[in-house]
Specification:
Elements: E1 4-7, E2 10-13, E3 18-24, E4 34-39, E5 46-51, E6 58-60, E7 68-73, E8 78-83, E9 92-99, E10 115-118, E11 122-127
Parallel strand pairs: 2-11
Antiparallel strand pairs: 1-3, 3-8, 4-5, 4-9, 5-6, 7-8, 9-10, 9-11
Length: 128
C-alpha cells in the first residue's frame, strides 16, 4: 500500500511559478514509478509528467515539457513538480500517482490506467 499526499497548490498569476510536492508513505517508495496528472473542470484527467524508478528517467507532456520539471527524492519519499511560466490553461486539480513497482521505462507512464495509487489532489489556479 502507498499513500500519497499532495501539497503546494494555490492561486498565482500567469508567468509565475509553483512547486508541487507529493509525500509518499511506505518503505519501498524507490521501486515505484511516479507521475503527475491534472484534471480541469469538464475535462478528463490528463498526463503531465512522470519519473521512472531506478534511473529516474523523466517524461513530460508536450504542452508542459518546456516549463514543468518532475523530480524525485527517494531518501525523502517525495516527488516534485516544478512549474514555471504558468498559463491560465494550466488551471486544474493536480494529482500525484504511483505506478506498478519496478515497471520499466517511461513511455507507458503516460497512461493513467498504469497507476495503482492516487493522492487527493491539489488545486492550481492561474489567473490572466
Amino acid at each position: 500500500q502507498v499513500q500519497l499526499v499532495e501539497s503546494g497548490g494555490g492561486l498565482v498569476q500567469a508567468g509565475e511559478s509553483l512547486r508541487l510536492s507529493c509525500a509518499a508513505s511506505g518503505r519501498t517508495f524507490s521501486s515505484y514509478p511516479m507521475g503527475w496528472f491534472r484534471q480541469a473542470p469538464g475535462k478528463e484527467r490528463e498526463f503531465v509528467a512522470a519519473v521512472s524508478w531506478g534511473s529516474g528517467r523523466t517524461r513530460a507532456a508536450d504542452p508542459v515539457k518546456d516549463r514543468f520539471t518532475i523530480s524525485r527524492d527517494n531518501a525523502k519519499n517525495a516527488v516534485y513538480l516544478q512549474m514555471n511560466s504558468l498559463k491560465p490553461e494550466d488551471t486544474a486539480v493536480y494529482y500525484c500517482a504511483a505506478g506498478k513497482p519496478f515497471m520499466g521505462g517511461v513511455n507507458g507512464l503516460t497512461d493513467r490506467h498504469e497507476y495503482d495509487y492516487w493522492g487527493q489532489g491539489t488545486q492550481v489556479t492561474v489567473s490572466s
